[in-house]
Structures are given as structure tokens and as C-alpha cells.
Amino acid sequence: MAEPTGVSAPPSGEFVCLDGNEAAARVAYALSEVIAIYPITPASPMGESADDWMAAARPNLWGVVPEVIEMQSEAGAAGALHGALQRGALGTTFTSSQGLLLMIPNMFKIAGELTPAVIHVAARTVATHALSIFGDHSDVMHARTTGWAMLAASSVQEAHDLALVAHAASLRSRVPFLHFFDGFRTSHEVDKIAVLADDDLRALLPGDDVLAFRSRAMTPDAPVVRGTAQNPDVFFQAREAANPFYLAAPAIVQDVMDHFGERTGRHYRLVEYVGAPDAERVVVLMGSGIGAAEEAVEALAAAGEPVGLLKVRLYRPFPAEQLVAALPPTVRSIAVLDRTKEPGALGEPLYLDVVAALDEACDRQPGPFAERPRVVGGRYGLASKEFTPAMVRSVLDELGPDRPRRHFTVGIYDDVTHLSLEVDREFRTTRPDGEVQAMFFGLGADGTVGANKASVKIIGESTDLWAQGYFVYDSKKSGSVTVSHLRFGPRPIRSTYLVEDADFVACHQFGLMERMPVLARAKRGATFLLNSPYGPDEVWDRLTRDMQQAIVDKEIELWVIDANRLAREVGMGNRINTMMQPCFFQLAGVLPADEAIDRIKQSVEKAYGHRGRTIVERNFAAIDRSLAELRRVEVPARVTSDRSAALPIPSAAPDFVKRVTARLIAGEGDLLPVSALPVDGTFPTGTAAYEKRAIAQEIPIWDPDICIDCGKCAIVCPHATIRMKVYEPGVLEGAPDTFLSKSFRSKDIQGYNLTIQVAPDDCTGCGVCVDVCPAKSKTEVRHKAINMEPVLEHRDRERVNWDFFRSIPPLARDLLPHDSVKGSQALEPLFEFSGACSGCGETPYIKLVTQLFGDRMVVANATGCSSIYGANLPTTPYTVDHAGRGPAWNNSLFEDNAEFGLGMRLGLEAQTKLARLLLGRLAPVVGDDLAGSILDAEQDTEPQVRAQRARIARLVSALGGLDDTDARHLRAVAGALNRQGVWIIGGDGWAYDIGFGGLDHVLTSGRNVNILVLDTEVYSNTGGQASKATPRGAVAKFAASGKDATKKDLGAIARAYGNVYVAQIAVGANDVQAVKALLEADAWPGPSLVIAYSTCIAHGIDMSKSMSHQKDAVKSGYWPLYRFQPTEAEGEHPFRLDSHKPSIAVHDFVSTEARYAILGRTHPERATRLASLVQADVDERWRYYEQLAAMERAVPHEPDPDVQPEVDSDAGYRYDEDSNP
Amino acid sequence: MTDLRTTYLGLDLRSPIVASAGPLTRELETAQRLEAAGAGAIVLPSLFEEEIVHEEVDLSYALEAGSEHFPEALEYFPRFPEVDSVLDRYLASIGELKDALDIPVIASLNATTTGGWIRYAELLANAGADAIELNLYRLAADPEQGATDIEARDLRLIADVVGAVDLPVAVKLAPYYTAMANFARQVAAAGAQGLVLFNRFYQPDLDLETRDVVPRIDLSEPWELRLPLRWIAILRPVLDPAVSLAATSGVHSGGDVVKALLVGADVAMTTSSLLRRGPEHLATLEAELRAWMTDHQYESVHQLRGSVSTATSDDPAAFERANYLRTLHSWITPSSLTATYPTSG
Known about the structure:
The complex is a heterodimer of chains A (about 1200) and B (about 350). Chain A is an alpha/beta fold and about 1200 residues long. Chain A is about 35% helix and about 15% strand.
């Protein structure tokens, strides 16, 4: 029987509160000389920490600051790591999911060369039917054939400890190690842990091992050759030659663990058993699920059940002997739980390994067990699905009957293949006396999570209590809700699942109680703290009925504080966290109030002190005033409210929306059965319109008397929530009294009306529309044609107005020319209400593209912000027009998007060819006139495209009655006779870095694809890491001391090919140019590349002024606007510079953005030096571009690739009944 | 040899020409050129409490915006161990200038809260400034605040700062106090060792295209010297001789320096002329001052100072209200008559 392990043993060293990523990164950084990094959730923070520490010149264990370098992809990081290792430098990298998959080719090489190295992985789901950023083992299981040892940590403490074990064991064994822990559950959980001192690291890492490693380095002083090509004669034998190293590795790992245990008191084993010594039923698993499993097994064993848990720590080389030896001989049945799925396999990997291990062991005489145990396999916890003690009990119960299911799932309800186990959700394990569980509901913007992380630190680091914090965020980037789950207690906390019975619940935003069941997990007698604009006498009547019911039923103690008023009074804006935090301490009783206040102040001082006194003093004022404002509410004995929660889904919504989407929106997705979900990841579009989030405090309200009909508000709106419609006045019959309208001024059409309307429940209140509105009142200039006003004063009226506005039919598309702001904004957007950040600079471009081409476009979207706000459930913003047409959208990967889009184009062209062939053949049947008009149709203009669409409809209808194989096939592909556009959309991380190779190739293909690069100059989605689009001097993650290299001129590379249409646009600076460029890109028959300047929250700007920043970016020459239209004509100027000569200094622009301004405060001299280089970069590029604009250039290119070849209708395969192609 | 030495705020200066607050005194390189050109002292640009607060709040906002919203991007900026604030940079520049220059370095402070005045004044003193210039830059725009309220509050602030630091403190005033002579005396009584006359208010302008209010900063013109000239002439005799007076605004030539000294200033401060013509222009001012003094057989600044104040001028009333009519009259006098009624430009 193994010794008790981990955190409950007497700890050594200093105690701090860290998350799993930092816990691992600290060790990795200290033990490395070269660290190659690339951002990927949830591993990015490890690379960020390494970069921060390098910027702060923190040395490694040998006194040297490691070389931390960001690469263009994980494949690049693995290659750089491989090279560094071969040169004899200790190296590491951090990754996850798809990133790990990209490293695999090099991992085979590194292992094949028996090179010590460690990759730390925050294990995450590999994208399949959908992308998921959350945790499971589908990524690491892919690496199990690479020859890397695999070590699984199941907690934050283990992520720290086993990181060291991995580095030490790798050096000793020469086998490279993949050290992994569960994404989010461990990587982002904050725990109190004992940290290793440098001496601990030194003691575990004998110098001889390091020297032996260095002695194998490539050097011209003792040259060798590695990486040979081998032939059938020797490859096999050479592959087997490494066997002894793998055979020795498990013992080496155990030896290191033993040494580690002696030093730290924290003992680990390769596999480790806990539970009843005479257990008959045992569950086997690895990773964070161990925490929940251990609680369940302890509780059940204490109640006399013969159950146990086998924790697997070393997964490769698989410690079969140790596993068998660790199991009690009494075991009769074993459930092996895998946190991954291998469709089509006999079972998941850990299960198969255990089966094989037991099979081999049981063949020996005498066998290790009284009787051969039965082994079953189950799946759990995919993509961070909750895994609780109740589920573990279900698994153990399942092992009881004579015939347990051999393959099952737990944690979901599978009503399709009926694999899921039933779970008694009321089952609870006993909590230790004195443990407090708390939940906090807040908004991302109000600082709730930050305060809770601070509370964990305060309690964990200044008391004897153990502390844990886990944070759940929602899927939107604007108005996002956060739920914090905190535990404090006298014993180490192993509960690796959400709080189930909260002693304390805080709701930091009054409106949240309408959006989610805030008290659902409150236990009887819990304390509830509500941030309320209503005082103790008034608040009860303002609660929803559900809320009152929960308070009465559970006898909850209710307290209120008006933290928003207090925050305003002390100059804290909407950061109410500082007011709420002391109230939590006061009510939860974790620390005496005075001591808590002192500690909170110390934590504020630590967090903000280095930035000056102002924020510190405002926080102090807030802290000092908060407790005095806290009030207890006398709770009536009965429910009185008739207020209900948020807006219901309209009854006219599609069935799928009512059945599935509505549940997801309501936060009930966990309860959906397997049958409710699409089998292949296909979802309807247009569902964002059903998710009424009502998150804005202020919304834009239109004043038609002042409006000049320019459409600027609509073109910049990131969420398509301020709309422009032009219509005939007769439409107004039946309009609500409050509906506003004015006559529409246009040189193109007369007698029409115009309305600018806000969608009050979809607007995020970003204010960008008001910022750009150029129309001001004659008598009061601050009053514009649209003005931000409190939503509560306007919501009811605007809801009615919006419904009517939606019912107005769109203007016929040909009435206004599209190449103007006004004309484009009269078109219906087919991208609306996304979850993008408030004020997002990317989404206006996508919306504009859908207005211009949405009814005939397919989208290949690179992973990144645009794929997240573009398609993160519960709802999706791409939608359809009145005829049901709209963008068809897909996301393949981060790295392959250009290729993915090219494939779509090729597919389309193949179908067009086939359709033309079949149509030619069927012409006599469908009518030569119709066939001829379709085959000869020009589709250069939108009316021509629509006319062709009508002809195709006639064709399909004519084909409908034909019982003929050709006809059926033509019907299937007839749509390809209509002109369609392929749009390849992604961010700069994709286009400049990880996807550049593919993008470059697609640009040279000559194929008709439109590439839209939303250039935020940084990896926005993963939190602001530098890309090659990041300009010199800007501070970003992975460039903490300001980027050295200048921004890559992607447009110049594309222009160099000659046949690529290239434009650089910035809608906030020149909206007309942006519209024209997109129209030209669509019209260009070859590849086109549009690089769109996209303001981003990662720029450190006030996003309501996002468009003003774009204007200044252009004015300063930082972002020149141009269009490059290749031409074969002599004497033409294909490069057209659309912006004026710089009229302000670059400094005047960049100094208004924190990403630049901060460098002057952290590295003043470097900032000055880089600033002058940035100006020089801009000057030089302007000079170059001016010369280009003057240049005559004729670019010879191939005939228009879009011209269809003549069709020989006799050629090609014939579809007929007796041959099936 | 003409003796240019003067005493200002108890500091011995080699010349009465002082480079006043502006970009040139902020940078070490230009400050050294000012010293080389003969500046008696330099005054640093004002440390604005509002700017400090604004920067700290803005920075925190910008660095935290969007943080803890979304699981993939819990923050958007690296973690910075140390961030210099406006204050840090200001204090560092005092130290740097003090190390590099021999002439006195006068720090300038514009605070809005009592706590701010005292805290920042102490920090400026600790950083090595030779004196502090308090910039009472405040617009009396609140209709609830009467002249006495404003004066009382200003005097309290001055007393607080004087009490908090050992350095000499000068107070830079706006010209809009109702009873300037009386207030000036009270400022001295509150402990100020000098008055700097006057603060120039940067007046906002309008953009006719956008109808936006836009800030405009114009360099001073020579005519602007006349306001400080008048008031220094009036105040010199009524203040304790130990209270220093500095003339600022519109000092562009050696002649302007002479005028300032004649009415009783201990120093003449200039910024705009140096910005227009470069730090070396200061040497020209000094040469012109010397030339005038030589031409008019003055041996020292001491001798020159205050010789045309209301106490020493042969026409003291000319500095006061009666003068208004004649000046006005001179403007409307037909040009044919100007030969007999010379007007000053």
C-alpha cells in the first residue's frame, strides 16, 4: 500500500497561492536556458510568465537569464527547441491541444535522439466537430506514440512538483518528458501550495546529469552526424536499440520522486492506491479528476464500502508492474476512466493499457489477484465537463452488479446509444469542519474575479487556512458574466469541481439575478450579499419571484450594499470589487474584520502601489466606507414578487432554437441529452437574434431632426445594433407612435424615408456610433443626431420600435449604389449581435462584407477572435436575408485557413465545371434557350448575379420532374452556376505568423479568393501576444519590453506577386475607401488581400473612441491607406495611395495608446530610442509608397481564371443508372 | 564690469535672467545649454496633480480593460513590475538636473488638493530642488465661491506648503485677483518668499469646422510684459523688501529684462523667446542687458532694480488707473498728430 501523498503530508517551503500554469512555469523557467513559446489557450500564461520574467531579467538556476523566444507556430517552437537541445542547451516549451499536435513531428525526432527535454502541457480538447478551449486528454493522448515519457499532475501542487520531477527524470533517463495537467481545472485554478526553493531544484538536478547532457551537444570541436537517413537494413534494429532507456525510465522517475519526497515531505508514486485495503471495486484515472474521485472513495470507504482509487501519474512508459502491484489483491472489478474519446476504438487508451497490463500480469503464476478482475472503460469530463464525487460513486456502483457495462460515459445523459450512467446528483461527501464555500456572480468589467483572486491570496498566504479559487467565464467578450467558486478550510482542498453548496453567495450586479439562478447552489441558511441600488427597506420588492422563493425556502440571510454609488463617489467607476470584498470578509467570517481590512489594503498596495498613489487611495477610501454601508434585510416570510427573469424566446422561433438554443442561453446546456445535439457539428445560423442580453447601461437614441443621412453610425457599429433602413413612406402605416422617421436625402432616389434604429437589448453601449456622428445640433453642439441615453428610460419604447423596424422590408438592392457609406448601409447586414468586445474594431468589416456579398459568400475563418465571436455557442451571429440566403461559415484550424478557403474555391470550381457539363448535356431537355442563357451569362454585377440566380431556379424547377441521373446530379450542383465568393477571414496571428506559409501559397495560386485580414497587430483572442504584425515599440505579451523588429509589410509581399489585388483599409479613417476596396476585392478575378486596421482592447485605448484612433493612425502615416489593382495596361499606376501625406507625428498618435505609452514608463530610454525608429519606419514607408504611387507598372498575368472553359458536353463521365461513379 | 548678480528667494543668482517653465528646462541637454548661455536659474515645468491622477487612473483603466472577461484572454498586457509615474519621472529629472547644473533648479507645482500640495512639495524638496514655485492656477468659475473664499483657500494652501518644506517657496499668481495689492501682501504674510507675476492662462479656441473646443497654446508676445510691469511697479514698494518678485510673460529682449528690473523685479523669466530662438538666445538677452546698462552707466542690477517703481518713479500715477484714459486717447489720436504725442508700442 502506498504512503499518503501530496498536499496532506507535512509541507516544506514557503506557501503561496498560484495557479497551475504559474506553478509549472516557475520550475520550467528556473531549469531552462532556451524557452520557445507560442500562445495557445490555456497554456499561454506559462509562456507569458516566462517572457515577463525574462523582461525583468530574472535568472535561471544557473544565474543566466533564459532566452525566451516567441515562434511563428508551435511547430516552430518545437523546431527551435529541438535545435537548442542539440546544441546542448536545456530547453522547454509550453503548449496545448492543436499546438501539441503541431509539435509531434519534432517530438518523434527529439525522443529518437534520446534528448532530455520537457514540454509542459495544459491539456485541452482537440477540435473535432467543434473547437473547445477546455480541458481533457485528447491532445496528450496523441503524443503517446512519440516516445516521450508522460507524467500527469492532478493538482496545482503536483503541477509544481512534477514539473521538477519531469526535468530531473528526463536528464537522468535521457527520455524527453511531457508533463501535463488539466486545462483550466488545474492550469487556471488558484491554490495554496508549498513552493520549491532553488536549493530543492539544485538537489534534485545532479550536475552530472546536466554535464552528461551537455557532452552530447553538437559542436565542431567533436563533430558527429545525427538525423541520418536509414535503409531497411538497419532502421528497425536502431529503433530497438533505445529500449533499455525506456525500460529504465519508470524506476528513474520513482527514484527522483523518492528523493523529492525526502526533501520536501511530499511523496509521490508512479501509480498510487488510496481507499479500502480490501477493496473489491476500484476506479483508475489520471489528472484533476483524481481530486473528486479521492473525496468520493474516502467517503464511501469510510462508510464501509470496499472501494478504492488508483491514481496514475506516470503514463508513459506505462508502469504496468507498478500498477498491478498497487492494486489490492482483493479487487474484483475495475473501471478505468479516460478523459478523451477515440471514436471507433475498442476503448480509450488508458483503459486499453490497463487491460493489457492486467492481462499480462494475470498470465503469470501465481497471479496477483484472488480472481482475475473484470475491467471496464468509461469516458468522463470531455472539454472540462464537470466531474464530481457523485459521478465517481455512480461508476463504483456500476462495478457492483454482476455485469457492469463494459463501456460507458458519466456526466451526461446519452439517450442515443444509452451509454451514460445515472448519477445521484444529491450525493455529497462530508466537508471538513470549518470549510467555507463561496460563490460570486459578477461581470468581467467589475473586477469581481480580480478581487476574489486577491481574497484567495490573502487567506491562503496570511493564515493557516487552505484556499482554492476557480473561475467560470462565459462565452461572450462583452458584458460577460463571471462566476467565482472559492473554498477555504483547515485541510488541503482537493475538490476539483464547482461549489455545490455555498455557505456564502454574492451577486455583484443586481441585474444578474434576472439572467441566472444565482441562489441555485446556495445551501440552507446561507448568507447572500447583493449589490443593490435599493436599500434594505426597498430591495425585497425589487427581487424576482424566483429569487424571493429561494431566499424564503432556504432561509437565506440577505444583506445589501449600494456598491455602484459608493464606487462612483470615490472615483472607482464601475469597479465595485473593492466595496464588495470587505463585505465578504465581514459576513463570511473567514478572518476578523479589522484584520481582513488591513490585509485587503495590503493587497491593494501590492497590486497598485507601483503605479502611484491615486488608485491606492481611492481603493482605500472604498474599503473604509464599505462596511458602514452594509445593511441586513429583514426577509418577509412569504414571496410577494411577480417579476420574472429575462425575456423569453419568442414562440415563433424555430424548433431548434426553442429546443436547444434556448436551453443553452438559459445556462442549462449540461442538462441537454445527447439526442438534442447535431451529430456533425452543424448548426443553424441567425441564432444570436434570440439571445437578448440587455447588457448596455446606455444606448444610442436617434434625433431625426439633426440627422444628415450619412450612415456612419451604422457602418462602424460593431454589433449591427444601430441600423439604417430606407423605405417607402407607406410602410409607416401601422407604425408605433414612438417610431421615428425622416425623409431620405439622396441624389439617387426620391420620395423615400429613413430610420436609424437601435436594437436596445443587443446594443453593448460602446458609444462608437455617437463618437463618429458628424451631425450636431445648431443650437447645442453636444447634442448629435444620435446620443447615448440611459437604457432604462428608453428600453420599453425602443423594443417596440425595433420590432417594427425589423418588419420593414429591406430596400431593393439596386436602388442605391453600393460604393458609398450610405448605399452600403441601406443593405441588410447578415452578421449581427456577436459576442465580440464592446467597441470591437474587427466586426464592422465583417458586417460590411456581409452587407455587400452576404447572400453569395462562403467563409473560411481562421481560429481566433473572429471564429470565437463568429461561432461560439450558445448563439451565432451570421444570419440570413429575407430569402433565407446568407454566409455559410466554417472554421478549420488556426494554421490552415488560407488553404481551407482555397479548397472551398477549388470545390466550387469543380462543381461549376460539372454543372456546366451536365447542363450542356441536358440542354435539349431543359430548353436550349435556358441552358444557353445560363452558360453564357455574365455575372459581373449584382443584378446579373441575381438574374442568373433566377435562371438557375427555373432550371432546378425544370429538372424537378426528370427521373434521370444526370438531372438529379445537376440539381445538386446547379447552385455552383451562380457566382459565389469565397472569403478567407482571420486575424494577424494567422495571416502574418502561423498561417503565413499557406497564405503565401494561396496568393500565388491565382485563384479567385478574397482574403480579409483583421489586423489588430497582436494575438487578440489569446490575450494580446505579439505577432509579426505588432509594430516596433509596441508593448505586448511576449514583447514585454517593447517589440524590437518592425512590422512586417504583408501587403508588400502580396503586391510583389503582381497579380494579387491588395488593399489596406481603416473604416474609421476613410469609410468610403474601405467600401470601395471590398467591392474591388470581390470583383477582382484572382486572389485579393484586404488588410483592415482593427482597433482592439489590447491596444489599451478607450474603445468608445476606437474610430478616432483609426483616424489618427492614418493621419500620422502609421497606417497608410492604399489599393493596388494589377493591370496589364501600359502607362497605368496600379498602386493608388488613398491617404494624405502624414499631418501629425506618429508620437501624437501612439502616445494615446497604452501599448506604446507604457514603455515610456517601464523602459524610458528604450522607449525614446524605439519611438524615433517608429517615426523613421513610417517616414521611410511613406517615401517608398509615394514613389510606388507614381510608378507605372504593367503586370502580365494569366487569363482571367474565372473564365469558364468551353464545355464539351460529350466529354466526361456520364451519370446513368447502371454505373455508379 | 557690470555686476549682474541678483538674489531671488534667498538664492544668489549670477544673472537676473531666469529660464522659465517649458520644454527647454525639462530636458537635460537643453537645460545645460541654458546654463551655458547664462541663465541665472531654471524653473521646471509644473508638476500637475491633475496630470498625475489622470495618468494613474487612465493607465490602470487601460491596462485592466477587458481583463478577467473571457477565459482565453484574462489580461491583455504583460505584468509590469515597476511603472514610472509622472511624479517619478519629474522627481528623477530634478535629481538629474541638479547633478548636471550649477545654477539653482526651481521645481514648480500645481496641485488641486491640500494633501497633494503638501505631499508633492515634500517630494520635490527631497528630490533636491532649490526652491518651489507654487502655481496657483485656478479659474474662479464656480458661482458659489466668492473672492474671499478663494483667497482664503489659496492662503491656507500656501501656509500649508510653506510649513511643510524647508525650501523657499514662491507663488505664481494669476492677474485676476480682485484686490491684488492686498492679496499679494497676504501671500507674503502666509510665508511665501516670492511672487511670480503672472501666470498666463492658455485660452481655449474653437474649431470652426467641427465646432469643437480645442486647446491652444500660444507663445507670449512682448506686449504681454506690460501687465507684470505695472503690478511689480505697484507692489515693489508695498511689499517687504525681502519678498522676491519675478516678472514673467512677454520677456523677449534685453530691453524687456531692463524694464522688469527697473520696476522692481529681482528676476525676469522667459520661455517663449527661448522656444522661438533657441536656448542660446538667453546669451543675447544678457548681452543686450549689459549693453543697455553700459550705455546708461548702471554698474549693477542691484542699482537698477526698482528705480522706476511707484515709489521711485517721477510719475507714479502713470502706473495706475488714470493712465487708462491717456492710453486710450493715444489710440484714437489721428495719425497726423502722433508726432507731437508719441505712443509706446
